[in-house]
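pasting for ref. prot 1 ->
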Amino acid sequence: MGAIKRREFVVGLMGLPFCAGEVAVGQGIASRGVKPQPRGKPSGIPFHAHFVDVAREAGLVKPVLYGEQEKKEYILETVGCGCAFIDYDNDGWMDLFLLTGTRFGHTPAAASNRLYRNNRDGTFTDVTEKAGLHWSGWASGVCTGDFNNDGFEDLLITYWGGFILYRNNGDGTFSDVTAASGLIPDPTSWYSGCTFLDQNRDGHLDLFLTSYVDFDLKRVPRPGEGSHCNWKGIPVNCGPRGLPTVAN
């Protein structure tokens, strides 16, 4: 069987059938007035899929940090971050790029995004430093795309407070070209996701960025302020910063 094309891979992840030359239409989101349909009968076909956690054996041992281990006081500490498969060196094997967050008040030494090169034997090697991708911050989403049409996949990472566009130099390294590309992040925005797309079909990838809630530490209630919070008009217990307590 030949290699799966990117479009087929993405469509498969969405759970939609793929047909060459046809457009697969998703079911969409039902409105509040639509009654739920009864569950269909089981097909009876055995499901033999079985997954085993092989992260440690594969060499993926660096921690993904997002807030304190024992408690979470801000919503920022609870949402986590994403990852991306990218064949950054064009050797035909998918490599892995993992995001991470950090902690308020201090940045652990291990807090950095990580690029793992595929060793082609089921293991990966951390090449973050060599690739020039060491960075600490509240990372959220990542997307890949060859924005300059040089044949190498580039990276864009979104953060709370900004985003970074990395150009793949084609020699195993990346360069931060955010400013040179005319992109000016808003330091007060929580950039949550991104995607590359050719919206005008001119053969050059465009960029679409999304942002989450307005999260400004200068305006978040300080510890001890506020005796209660409201969730849909109902008072609920609050944490030490005046925000709803989130259990780990």
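and prot 2 ->
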Amino acid sequence: MDFKDYYSTLGVAKTATEKEVKQAYRKLARKHHPDVNPGDKAAEARFKEINEAYEVLGDPAKRRKYDELGANWRMYEQAGAGTGAGAGPGAGWNVNFGGGSGGGFRTMTAEEMRDMFGESDPFSDFFHTFFGGGSPGGGGEPGRRASRARGARPGRDVEHELELGLEDAYHGVTRRLALRLDGHARTVDVRIPPGVGDGSRVRVGGEGEQGTGGAQSGDLYLRIRLLPHPKFERKGLDLYTHVAVPLTTAVLGGEADVMTIAGKPLRLKVPPTTQNGQMFRLKGHGMPAVGKPGEHGDLFATVDVELPRSLTPEQRVHFEALQKTAI
């Protein structure tokens, strides 16, 4: 019987937090789920390994017992041999690996496992020996595992595309979405945080497909697609726009109004002899950073010098005089 390195199976360190373990499990479970890989025996085997690893590391008590095993697992196996699956590791160790009165936890029964995987037992000999998998112990942990019923399966995650205007991405917005999942229509109110970018994903927990047999539902992921804006271009957290400046202001200097994405104008100081296409930076007037209040990108304004389309006689005289001085 081989030792099962559950940390390696989930790709996490031994110091990983409960949240990190759960995130790793969910990511791998989605990738290798039998519904996503129908008929793929390699994916099914990997899915069983992932579930067994999380069956232990996802439960604080079992994880603590697993960590106590460490390099001494062979001694534990020998000490418990002959006492039946799920027996304790021997005298001198205050560890209960089975479904006895001190454990308060049981895994799926053999019958429940056959309902999900047919005749194939999804748990390894290592798991059966040390954690009593398949034994009909009493009790039960409140929460995810205890809620497993015959044929229980977690719901799949669902992904939808959501079109969003740049102003809504700047301010953040609540959208009511009409979804049809599991053959049923329902509405979901989703809060989009300020600053989301094109292609980013917003997670709505528990709003995916419903689980069966009391298992948890999947999540809803909204993939954001930002619509083009007529006046602003976004690059990361920075915004780019153009500002029209009269020829006289560009030559002599002055001020010009620059409209921000927030809908408020800013006064831009234009120095004398400003060239067409010159860019000015307005610090802190770009897009907000998601989850970081007060942090914004910058706004860059490119000068478009406006030439007069017609001249009065007096204006022509002045331009002709200017032309002579330039020569």
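The longest helix spans residues 41-57.
Confidence is low (pLDDT under 50) at residues 79-110, 133-150.
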